[in-house]
């Protein structure tokens, strides 16, 4: 195994274990020392991979979103599903993952608060981490318009609305501590019914 591959493998292992520390301790109380101890290495070794706690956390979130992206792409690529069913599947899967990672979401919100307090742009941080996910969703909507399943409307507006539903669910989970988010699936189905209705309406008016 090459040195570069071994380095990346060790880095990913550190990230996986670091995420557990952040979840257990919270962002503010997590230290470089605690992360090093959890990984079974010294602080000196840890510095060979990351320069500070913030870098470790941002890479950990990147790891989380990458896993989410893989799941979303898998749903979006299923040829047996309609575009509406893909959107519903993506929304439900995203919410289920958020429920499973509720403690992590709380840490992320704590981290974003820390960014704002220090004068950083937390909105930009979130945008950079979710832009690829939103692009996949937009692609599903565009495909639905191309095949006539959906009508003509702003893809960006539809993408924003679905994303807002997911954000609202994250708020309920991380801030309000709600575990029952079954209404999200119903909301996603209602959202998709509206998209499909536009296609039927346009199909009816062109006959």
Attribute tags:
2 domains; Arc Repressor Mutant, subunit A; 78% helix; 207 residues; mainly alpha; elongated; Tetracycline Repressor, domain 2; 0% strand
Description:
The protein has 207 residues and is mainly α. It folds into 2 domains: 1-51, Orthogonal Bundle (Arc Repressor Mutant, subunit A); 58-205, Tetracycline Repressor, domain 2 (Orthogonal Bundle), CATH 1.10.357.10. The protein contains 9 helices and no strands. Helix 4 runs antiparallel to helix 5 (83-100).
Say how many strands there are: 0
CATH classification, class level of the largest domain: Mainly Alpha
The percent range for strand residues is: under 5%
User: Which structural class do the helices and strands define?
Assistant: mainly alpha
Produce the secondary structure layout.
Elements: H1 3-25, H2 32-39, H3 43-46, H4 53-76, H5 83-100, H6 102-117, H7 122-146, H8 155-174, H9 183-205
Task: Summarize, please.
The chain is mainly alpha-helical and 207 residues long. Helices cover 78% and strands 0% of the residues. The protein has 2 domains: 1-51, Arc Repressor Mutant, subunit A, CATH 1.10.10.60; 58-205, Tetracycline Repressor, domain 2, CATH 1.10.357.
């Amino acid at each position: 195994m090459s040195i570069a591959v071994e380095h990346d493998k060790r880095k990913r292992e550190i990230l996986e274990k670091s995420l557990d520390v952040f979840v257990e301790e919270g962002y503010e109380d997590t230290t470089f020392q605690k992360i090093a101890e959890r990984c079974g290495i010294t602080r000196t070794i840890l510095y060979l991979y990351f320069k500070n706690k913030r870098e470790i956390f941002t890479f950990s979130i990147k790891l989380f979103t990458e896993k989410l992206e893989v799941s979303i792409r898998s749903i979006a690529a299923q040829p047996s599903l309609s575009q509406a069913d893909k959107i519903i599947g993506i929304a439900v899967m995203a919410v289920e993952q958020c429920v499973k990672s509720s403690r992590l979401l709380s840490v992320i919100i704590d981290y974003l608060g820390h960014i704002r307090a220090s004068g950083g742009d937390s909105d930009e941080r979130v945008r950079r981490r979710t832009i690829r996910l939103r692009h996949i969703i937009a692609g599903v909507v565009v495909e639905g318009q191309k095949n006539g399943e959906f009508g003509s409307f702003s893809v960006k507006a539809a993408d924003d609305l679905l994303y807002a539903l997911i954000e609202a669910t994250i708020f309920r989970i991380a801030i309000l501590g709600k575990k029952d988010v079954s209404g999200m699936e119903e909301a996603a189905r209602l959202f998709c019914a509206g998209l499909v209705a536009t296609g039927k309406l346009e199909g009816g008016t062109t006959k």
